[in-house]
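note to self — DONT lose this again. spent like an hour looking for the file last time. sequence + predicted structure for the chain T wanted, 112 res
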Amino acid sequence: MTTTVVLEPAGRTTVSKRAVERIAARAAREIDGVADGVTVDASVSGDSAVLRMRLPIRYPLPVLRIAEECRTHVISRTGELTGVTVTALDIAIAAMVVESVSAATGSGRRVR
């Protein structure tokens, strides 16, 4: 004889606004071409969120391509990690960032 046990949900899990903002910002930085300084403001309601992002992009990379790649990745990654569905993501390009020679080479040494 086989017995099937059905488990009822024991409670509710909520993800804070701040956690969603941090995870979305981190996801944006995973995209090549996104510079440091990403900021995100989230409005979370239940299991959905609307995000507003200020995105610095490295110069001279194509702004539209980086922004679209970032949008797709942030929506997907934020949903994966939080269980919250991102219903809208507004992106404002905050800056075009020129890397210094030492940052581009990664050496940290001055060129003589």
